[in-house]
Amino acid sequence: MSSGHALRVPAGRARWLRIWAVARRHAYVLRRSPHRLFDVTVWPIVDTVLFGSLGVYFARQGGPSGPAQAGAAYLLSGIVLWHVVYQAQIAVSTGFMEETWTRNLLGLMVTPLKELELVVGIAAFGLVKLVMGVGVVALAAVALYAFDVTALGLGLLPVMAVLLLGGWAIALVVVGLMLRYGNGAEALAWGIMFVVMPLGGVFYPVEALPAVARPLSELLPTTHAFAAGRALVDGGPMPWGELGLAAAGTLVGTLAALVFLARMLRLFRRRGYVTRYS
Amino acid sequence: MSDVLRARGLVKRYRRGRAVDGVDLTVRQGERVALLGPNGAGKTTTLLMCLGVVEPDAGTVEIAGHRLPKGRSAAMSNVGFAAGYLPLPERLRVGEYLRMFGQLYGLADPDGQARRGLERFGIARLAKAMGTELSSGQKTLIGIVKATLHDPELLVLDEPTASLDPDVALRVRTGLADLCQERGTAMLVTSHNMVEVERIAERVVFLSDGRVVADGPPGEVAARFGRDDLEEVFLHLAAGRQAPEHAEGARP
């Protein structure tokens, strides 16, 4: 196992040690880059205030009727769940970008670190950021609008799990595009979320969209996950059909994203694109 | 002596032509080899293919018995790489940076290895410094400590002393020579400093237009070209090149 005289850990442990090393490196980055905290503190609060206030305004316009009040709850639960997708995606995308910005990619590529271990390490620390970001939204919703997302119950957990995987799948596509097109594709990390947000049924059902956009919206797994979330807001049972559709779609999407990433990585190596970052 | 690196028939074509055209390269255990050639000769592309970072269009690479690309991870645990042009990641202290790479190499005691590495090159005081606080020479030294952290079988150094003053460059050469002698580490180095190459390398491989044009001990290679030293061989090859079809380091 060891070459030379340096003592090595067993191969099975070495894999986890590499993942730990990547996660820890990104913890240092967050700790020493206060501006990175914007994604997990400021934007979540801004989003909560924006959508919470919209909800409150329309609820007041609509009077005390049930649908008007439910609208505010849809918006607030939607923004909490949206931040699961957003934080998962942004953490992995910006984690990869960090390696390109600091020209660390070549250095990492000539270590035993495997590509998947790099992604897992970044995503693992991303979970910490996700807990921070979603926690801030949830707390702001309670503090500012007396909306307690935990009141939706444990049914929220599978919905969040599907959205988490969905966020990671989007991130894999973004990383693949960055491998192919370089830092020019960075804007997609944020831009792609502005496409998913309106089409992904975050705040409203598919029927609220223009007819032309509905088929595309139906295809997005997030649409079904958010629909399941709204059913919980309505106090109904978990709509397992919607959640199943969301889970199946997300699994298929994640597999497709992995295949895409593998192809882009192959192209990256074949065309020597690493010279962009060294 | 067994081969630590064995590359056969490496070919790499970019849009502007062949960057590497059928290169064979062998580095044996404990051997110190310099890969030389003018800009655009194909040195960096060859190195990157040997490291599994760039996929060759043809040819094979084997490191410490592991065939690339399948055995890349296992192969890289036997390789240390440093390049004068690679910066230290920002927002990390030197000690944190070395610990991270030590863990990537699967070291049981990354902090201890880092401390010994820093002491070897006389820079133990830098352990707590931030990467952004270091001079370019200090960064290069830290890069070399990182590359030698895990006592690799093969050390690959791309322009390692490019930004160092003569005093620090001497310290680097001495440290590397000691390491190679003590641990039997093989070294593959590129440099434009021919005087340094003559001091470090026991064998030189000259590339020109992506092909190996000479391979042997420095004195023999110089004599084969009818020159007094490697500097003259280098100038001869550089002058003899046609307008470059591809610039090394340029984006393919």
List keywords for this structure.
heterodimer; A: 278 residues; mainly alpha; 73% helix; 0% strand; elongated; B: 252 residues; Rossmann fold; six-stranded mixed β-sheet; four-stranded antiparallel β-sheet; 9 helices; 10 strands
Structural commentary:
The complex is a heterodimer of chains A (278) and B (252). With 278 residues, chain A is mostly helical. Chain A has 10 helices and no strands. Chain A is elongated. The mean pLDDT of chain A is 92. Chain B has 252 residues and is an alpha/beta fold. Chain B has one domain (3-240): Rossmann fold (3-Layer(aba) Sandwich), CATH 3.40.50. Chain B is built from 9 helices and 10 strands. In chain B, strands 6-7-8-3-9-10 form a 6-stranded mixed beta sheet, with helices on both faces. A 4-stranded antiparallel beta sheet of chain B has the order 2-1-4-5. In chain B, strand 1 (3-14) and strand 2 form a beta hairpin. In chain B, helix 3 crosses helix 4 and helix 4 packs across helix 5 (136-148).
Outline of this structure?
Chain A is mainly α and 278 residues long. Chain A has ten helices and no strands. Chain B has a single domain, classed as 3-Layer(aba) Sandwich (Rossmann fold), CATH 3.40.50.
Summarize the topology.
The complex is a heterodimer of chains A (278) and B (252).
Chain A: H1 11-32, H2 42-62, H3 66-101, H4 105-109, H5 115-145, H6 156-181, H7 187-199, H8 214-219, H9 221-233, H10 240-270
Helix pairs in contact in A: 1-5, 2-3, 2-5, 3-5, 3-6, 3-7, 3-9, 6-9, 6-10, 9-10
Chain B: E1 3-14, E2 17-28, E3 32-36, H1 43-50, E4 58-63, E5 66-67, H2 72-76, E6 79-83, H3 94-104, H4 110-120, H5 136-148, E7 154-158, H6 166-183, E8 186-190, H7 194-200, E9 203-208, E10 211-216, H8 218-224, H9 230-240
Parallel strand pairs in B: 3-8, 3-9, 6-7, 7-8
Antiparallel strand pairs in B: 1-2, 1-4, 4-5, 9-10
Helix pairs in contact in B: 3-4, 4-5
